[in-house]
Specification:
mainly alpha; 132 residues
């Protein structure tokens, strides 16, 4: 099984996801983790073993306790793989769009100013013809 599949399998279980969320804040001992669940301590130990084998957590022996901590980097590959399915549109660069709008406004004003004297001359010419 490849690393991506191991990580995905490990986080597929809601209990393991809750454990990861707990470890996001601070490292905890197996006893501290087990105390927060209504399931047996051996069941929590099995969940911790799956998380450890997937590389999502590491344990450190402190006296007769094991303290578990999150290995955040292991989620990076899965996050990158999932990102390709993100349906959010590409972020809009408003500064670039506003600059383009400003350019268009200036161009329109310039073209209008160039056209107005020609229109004024046309009107003046017709006015002279009407009075003659």
């Amino acid at each position: 099984m490849d690393d991506l599949s191991k990580v995905a399998d490990a986080i597929a279980d809601p209990v393991r996801r809750k454990i990861l969320m707990m470890l996001l804040r601070t490292p905890l001992t197996a006893g501290d983790i087990a105390a927060r669940f209504a399931i047996s301590r051996p069941a929590i130990s099995r969940h911790l073993r799956v998380l450890r084998e997937s590389g999502l957590v590491r344990d450190q022996h402190i006296g007769r306790h094991r303290r578990y901590s999150l290995v955040r980097s292991r989620l990076g590959d899965l996050a990158a793989w999932l990102a390709q399915f993100d349906t959010q549109p590409v972020p809009v660069d408003w500064s670039q769009r506003l600059a383009a709008l400003e350019t268009e406004v200036h161009r329109t004003r310039r073209d209008r100013n160039r056209a107005e004297p020609a229109a004024d001359q046309h009107i003046a010419r017709h006015s002279k013809e009407d009075t003659a």
